[in-house]
Amino acid sequence: MRPKYKRILLKLSGESLMGHQGYGIDTVRLNEYAEQIKQVASQGVEIAIVIGGGNIFRGLQGASKGFDRVKGDQMGMLATVINSLALSSALEAAGQPAQVFTAINMFPIGRHYSKWEAIEAMKNGKVAIIAGGTGNPFFTTDTGSALRGIEVEADVMLKGTRVDGIYTADPEKDPTATKFDEITYDEVYNRGLKVMDLTATALCKENRLPIVVFDMDTVGNLAMVIAGEPIGTYVY
Q1: pLDDT per residue as tens digits for the range 149-177
Q2: 180-184, long-range: CB within 8 Å, 24+ apart, which pairs?
Q3: What angle is formed at CA 226 by the lines to CA 131 and CA 114, rounded to 5 degrees?
Q4: CA 97 from chain center: how many Å?
């Protein structure tokens, strides 16, 4: 079956990397992600990835505990670099070439991010893992994902979460919550749904980058989304 998308931006949550540990990186979950990504890459899909850092440090939480907000956000950016290095290592161990790019110059940890170098890496069969958010404080990794997805000319932004789509309310707290199969950017905004922050949603809307929110923790789901199976929620 031909993939529905030629080039994707995959946003992974740092919290999901914790698995059942409650903190840090669960190698079982990490390797599951690597195998799913390798499977999709083997179909010729070009993949860029942005990972959050919430399993290690969150700038906003740090600010609430007395950290300077700018320094807290910079610590969060470094957490995304740690996760990106872990994923690149897992991918290469699985036989899938990967290249880490960083939003601020961190050579030799990763190459300084450039749209053209990231696209070239993807065209050469490497997974481009883009770390460090936007390189600026006060922006989330969701906004970083939207920005990078637009820059590398992705067909879609796939937001892998612990939940299988967007609901009218938090399904983990409200058993009456119902799932959307598809929803517009405006409706996400007007309903105040916590899919992504407003900056990220506005960026995707303005640049017509569709989003699919799906459950990445269920093995095989990434391949199903790429094949165009109706899982998750499509935001347009």
Answers
A1: 999 999 999 999 988 999 998 888 898 99
A2: 180/233, 181/230, 181/233, 181/234, 182/233, 182/234, 182/235, 182/236, 183/233, 183/234, 183/235, 184/235, 184/236
A3: 30
A4: 18
Helix (H) or strand (E) holding 75: helix 69-93
Q: Where are the beta strands (DSSP E) in the chain?
A: 7-12, 46-51, 98-102, 111-112, 127-131, 156-161, 166-167, 179-180, 182-183, 211-215, 233-235
Model confidence pLDDT, tens digit, residues 49-78: 999 999 998 777 777 888 899 999 999 999
Tell me if 133 sits within 8 A of 144, measured CB to CB: yes
Helix then strand count (H, E) for the chain reads: 9, 11
Residue-wise pLDDT tens digits, 80-134: 999 999 999 999 999 999 999 999 999 999 999 999 999 999 999 999 999 999 9
**Which residue from 83, 91, 34 is spatially nearest to 58, judged by alpha carbons?**
83
Measure the CA–CA gap between 147 and 137, rounded to whole angstroms. Answer: 15
Which residue carries 């992600």 as its tokens?
Answer: 33
Residue with tokens 């990972």: 51
pTM for this one?
A: 0.94
DSSP for residue 157? E
Contacts of 56 (CB under 8 A, 6+ apart): 14, 23, 24, 79, 82, 83
DSSP run (H or E) holding 28: helix 27-41
Nearest-10 crossing angle of helices 115-123, 141-151: 70
Kindly state the tokens that stand for 218: 């269920």
